[in-house]
Automatic annotation (TrEMBL):
One Gene Ontology cellular component annotation held by this UniProt entry: endomembrane system
InterPro entries in the cross-refs: CWH43_N (IPR019402), DRAM/TMEM150_Autophagy_Mod (IPR050911)
Principal localisation: membrane
The CWH43-like N-terminal domain, residue ranges: 10-233
Entry membrane topology: Multi-pass membrane protein
Family per record: Belongs to the DRAM/TMEM150 family.
Keywords tagged on the record: Membrane, Transmembrane, Transmembrane helix
Residue ranges crossing the lipid bilayer per the database entry: 12-32, 57-77, 98-117, 123-141, 162-182, 202-226
Domain of life of the source: Eukaryota
Record's keyword annotation contains Kinase: no
Organism: Paragonimus westermani
Pfam families xrefs: Frag1
Protein name: CWH43-like N-terminal domain-containing protein
Length: 252
């Protein structure tokens, strides 16, 4: 049995991933600002999903996105392995397996971000966020390299991916730098001042920069995964079959 969508193949999977992530982020941001739990224009993504009810939507949405993201990584790995079979001993099996592992690790990190809220478990949340963001940026560069060197994609196809990967890397570096700087300049003693910054708390400009870069980085990565849709269109997923156990046959 094959799973695909008429005229779309499996391209609906990266589209679904983008829709889940985008809707989750917008819903939690709207709920957090509507309930007055964050400073309206400049909030970190994790801060918008800290308290209920938005934390429930945040966790559920990111768990679903992590699951779909892992499936996308698995399918792209299968596509790349199949299209490089002709290379024989020169097939980059190890490279593709590392790429697949990074994709899975990034998905696990995304699930951690959703399940461990920033306000209560900051360390675990931060580890999950860094795993996801750094992993996705590295995944983008490595996948683009495979497309260019081993899959022989045309320049017009892999060049946009490279541009997105480079932009994502830039936003990642600026985000980390601005966030660390904002933490060192924090002067307020409010409990939530680390993540819900006000202009008089110290380091507000750096915090604002970090927030903008984080949101831009995430949507850049969403755009990158959307570039998988044309590739997935030509493929379908074969589901495993349930058959009678050989042990049962022997006993019969």
């Amino acid at each position: 049995m094959e799973v695909s969508c008429f005229y779309m193949g499996l391209s609906w999977l990266p589209i679904l991933l983008a829709l889940i992530l985008t809707s989750t982020l917008y819903i939690t941001y709207f709920l957090a600002t509507f309930n007055g739990q964050v400073v309206g224009e400049f909030a970190l993504i994790g801060t918008t999903g800290t308290r209920p009810p938005e934390s429930c939507v945040f966790a559920q949405g990111l768990n679903l996105a992590a699951f779909v993201g892992a499936i996308c990584a698995y399918i792209w790995h299968g596509i790349a392995m199949r299209r490089t079979e002709f290379m024989g001993k020169n097939q980059p099996r190890t490279y593709l397996r590392v790429l697949f592992a990074i994709g899975l690790l990034s998905s696990v990190g995304l699930s951690v971000v959703g399940n461990f809220q920033q306000d209560e478990t900051e360390t675990v949340h931060t580890v999950g966020a860094m795993t996801t963001l750094i992993g996705c940026v590295l995944y983008a560069f490595m996948l683009t390299h495979v497309c260019r060197k081993y899959l022989a994609y045309r320049y017009a196809y892999w060049a946009p991916r490279l541009c997105i990967a480079m932009a994502s890397f830039t936003f990642l570096v600026v985000f980390i730098g601005c966030y660390i700087s904002s933490r060192t300049k924090l002067t307020s003693t409010r409990r939530d001042s680390k993540f819900n910054r006000r202009p008089d708390d110290g380091g507000f400009s750096e915090f604002k920069c970090a927030s903008i870069c984080e949101w831009t980085l995430v949507f850049s990565l969403i755009a990158f995964f959307l570039t998988m849709a044309p590739e997935f269109r030509r493929y379908a997923l074969s589901l495993p079959k349930v058959v009678e156990s050989s042990l049962e046959k022997n006993e019969a």
